[in-house]
Amino acid sequence: MLLTISTTYSPATDLGYLLHKHPERIQSFDLTFGQAHVFYPEARDERCTAALLLDVDAVGLTRRPHGRFGENFALAPYVSDRPYVASSFLSVAIAQVFSSALSGKSKERPQLAETAIPLEVKLSTLPCRGGEQLLRRLFEPLGYKISAERHTLDAQFPDWGESCYFTVTLQNTCRLSELLTHLYVLIPVLDDEKHYWVDEAEIEKLLKHGKNWLAAHPEQESIARRYLKHLRPLTDQALARLCDTDPQQTEETIQAQVEARINLNEVRLQTVTEVLKQCGAKRVLDLGCGEGKLLRKLLREKQFEEIVGMDVSHRALKIAQERLHYERLPERQKERLRLFQGSLNYQDKRLVGYDAAAVIEVIEHFDPPRLAAFARVLFEFAGPRTVVLTTPNIEYNVKFENLQAGTFRHKDHRFEWTRDEFHSWATRISKRFGYAAVFHPIGPMTEDVGSPTQMAVFTREDRAAERI
Ligand code: SAH
Fold first, then answer.
1. Residue 229 and which of 88, 92, 161, 204 are 20 to 30 A apart at CA?
2. Average pLDDT of 328-335?
3. Whose CA is nearest to atom 17 of ligand 1?
4. Mean of pLDDT values over 443-451
5. Helices (H), 300-395
6. Which domains does the chain have, with CATH numbers?
């Protein structure tokens, strides 16, 4: 199993200082499951590559007691990919062989350890249970450019189809310690296996190595679940702590954790996308767009010629820009999408003249007087033909096991409404500004408390009349 890390930072041989391994020496390390060797296939000022070769003792593995390796290892003495693929063995090797680099320390080049430098990683054989799609969902949000080549199951028998093994190249400009923590956590996540027993200590590892990035990662739930071997109590604990320990978390990630069990966010955004498509809109606004999840869906639909995301939070917009890989979008896509900062509490000329606006899980963040200002800003001044607006249904909160009785889904929510409260607000607004409102539940429907999300679709009267 071979991992290489290259940089073109100049002088590139400084990589040796960051990894604490001299470019001119081959070094070997004994590990409990085999040996690791570090050497440099190239060490020039313009480009330097360090290689970590992992020699897993295949025979030794088979002598270990069964059960330590999980069910997949019942056949271990006969068939095992472990010696040849990137797995939790590689994570352990990274932690032992590159421990200082992993924690971001460098005696000789402390500043460089803090600096984002161009890095490229090659993994000779990476098992991706979940395919290339999962590989991309895990690494792209962290800013990686990915190329992946899938191996056939057996070159002699092409009919057997594709394997789950890939040769992968990852490129990013980041600190070396960030890159190593990403690999440390995500390789076993992709492999969906661990060679050792997993208990609460594993949560500490996940939170330690995921400290600066996991809380904002869109796949944090599946990462935690797979990293903790699908053990529900451990996963729940990790996700709850992740949300406590990151004061920087944005609104939607926290609410998403409460609602995660039913994957409500996905259902909600899918429904909103459908409504926007159905109403025939071409130019659409996503107001309070947050990290841009809806924008991403809208971009995929050719019908939308102009898509605008607005949010009051610079931080959310920056995340949205990164998540959507705005800088790297092809020119034509870039022309369709615009992000800007603004507040829904103030009149804004930039919002005038659109076919439709989505306001998804936003109004509950407004103080009541601001809510009145918002209604004028949107329905009176901006006046899109269609408004799709969602907000939590407070009656449903009793169904969320991980939500304390009497609390809102997010601490920044100023209110959460019952179905009656939402209906009467929306009806009042419609009358006042000349719209007609239709209501839809989103998420699993219950007889007693309705659905978790409530949606109103407002259509401007001139338009509503046209339809009749
Ligand atoms: N619509 C997104 C995000 C919901 S979280 C989604 O459904 O995933 C609420 C968002 O509203 C946050 O990103 C917050 O920054 C934004 N927001 C709060 N007050 C706002 C205001 N006055 N104007 C614009 N955006 C606001």
1. 161
2. 90
3. 288
4. 89
5. 314-323, 331-336, 368-375
6. 2-197 (3.30.1610.20), 253-467 (3.40.50.150)
Measured CA to CA, the distance from residue 307 to residue 284 in angstroms comes to 5
- 99 contact partners, CB below 8 Å, separation of at least 6: none
CB 269 within 8 A of CB 234: no
Q: Which 3-state string (H, E, C) describes 5-70?
A: EEECCCCHHHHHHHHCCCCCCCEEEEECCEEEEEEEEEECCCCEEEEEEEEECHHHHHHCCCCCCC
Query: Which SS3 state, helix, strand or coil, does residue 425 take?
Result: helix
Distance (Å) from CA 250 to ligand 1 centroid: 9
pTM over 0.90: no
Q: Facing residues of 39 across strands?
A: 51
Tell me 363's DSSP state: G
Single-letter amino acid, residue 258: V
The dihedral through the CA atoms of 269, 271, 275, 281 has a sign that is: positive
Long-range contacts from 141-148, C-beta under 8 angstroms, 24+ separation: 141/217, 141/218, 141/219, 141/322, 141/323, 142/172, 142/174, 142/182, 142/213, 142/217, 143/172, 143/173, 143/174, 143/322, 144/170, 144/171, 144/172, 144/182, 145/170, 145/171, 145/172, 145/328, 146/170, 146/171
361 contacts 443 by C-beta, under 8 angstroms: no
Please name the residue that has the structure tokens 């004061």: 247
Instruction: Retrieve residue 56's tokens.
Output: 């897993």
d(CA 183, CA 205): 13
| Ligand 1, pocket residues at CB < 6 Å | 251-252, 288-290, 293, 311-313, 316, 343-345, 360-362, 365
Mapped onto helix, strand or coil, the DSSP state of residue 72 is: helix
Which of 311, 348, 370, 388 has most ligand 1 atoms within 8 Å of its beta carbon, as the pocket-test mutant? 311
- The pLDDT tens digits of the residues spanning 152-164 come to 766 666 666 678 8
- Alpha-carbon gap, residue 458 to 438, rounded angstroms: 7
Of the pLDDT bands very low, low, confident and very high (cuts 50, 70, 90), residue 78 is low
> What is the tens place of the pLDDT at every residue in 21-37?
999 999 999 998 889 99
- What single-letter amino acid sits at 257? Q
Q: Which residues contact 315 (CB under 8 A, 6 or more apart)?
A: 248, 250
